[in-house]
Amino acid sequence: MEKIDRRIKRTQRLLQEALVALTLEKGFDEVTIREITERADVGYTTFFRHYPDKEALLVDVLDTMRQDFHNLLMPHSIITEPETMGELLFEYVEQNLDLCRVLLDSTDTITLLRPVQEIGQQEIGMMFSAAQEREIPLEVAASHLMTSLVMLIRWWLENDMPYSPRKMGEIAAKMIIRPVIESFHA
Amino acid sequence: MEKIDRRIKRTQRLLQEALVALTLEKGFDEVTIREITERADVGYTTFFRHYPDKEALLVDVLDTMRQDFHNLLMPHSIITEPETMGELLFEYVEQNLDLCRVLLDSTDTITLLRPVQEIGQQEIGMMFSAAQEREIPLEVAASHLMTSLVMLIRWWLENDMPYSPRKMGEIAAKMIIRPVIESFHA
DNA sequence: GTGTTATGATATACGATATATCATAACACA
DNA sequence: TGTGTTATGATATATCGTATATCATAACAC
User: Residue B144 and residue A109: Cβ atoms within 8 Å?
Assistant: First the structure.
């Protein structure tokens, strides 16, 4: 556990907050680095002392969400209670709307979420590693599970959340999670 | 059926071919408009007489694929033969590798494929409109179906096509298509 | 208090997009 | 084949966003 200069933490926090605020206002792609530094009230050149580009800053923001999800889903088993798992997911999104909107807004969600997905897929791989008989290769199933859930959340946000988290959790369980589970012991 | 100046068709064809070739070499995001015009051997300013930006050119290329898929899948029913449907899909991708790689490479696949997906979702909506009892709203199911299939193809290409089109078709049917179908008469 | 380090400000270079203009060449059609 | 029309190429130019170098200052850790 290294000690980090307070100025560094402060600057990075300001930049992250500015990115979130600006992305909510006009979309990730329309935000320029100059705007971010102006909103954060830090020097333009300072940005590059911390991040090589805008995407790197977003990845930093993203990691917060990844940790949250990890802590949220850890105590539950996706195999025995898929509906609960789905509901928890959508409840988290509802309670962290701003953050989730930002992370799912950037047009290349797929690329940006890759680090998160890879970790998620590893965890899913662990969960299902016990299953002996598989119709579908583990790697395909894990990738599909993560990707589809993210895309379903995306759909929900883009369509102004027309259904409750509970309902969306059920949908996720029926349409995505259970089919994957069943493919492992059929 | 309007008659279009041969020069226009020629220029647009050259630009499309140049974009495909360059994207295969270095990825969509790295290609500049200047490079496209140089490769196509047309004036730089000419580009903007046809397309407002790089994405518009890609959408033009994209439409070719959309028509192909439509013609390919038209004669079959996704409800009665999901495995065949899946296999046809992956066979088409295998036989049109260059084109598909280009279209799925650009980082914001989701945004760019939206016009294609919307049309696909309408068609899917038609197919399932007969089903009376639904556990899952039609719009959610249609969006999930299209998105997940595209993402599965993406995974297949990014991982150097480790399984045959037939195998991938089975996976698609089991993991994506059949669960959607079953949600409509449960 | 002292050496260290992050910051702000300024200047600057670069690359890519985008538009205006005009002479030329290719076109459609009679 | 001749004629009016239109797309093109070449050049110049404006704008914007990214990225780096430099140096004095202020905040930091100890």
Answer: no
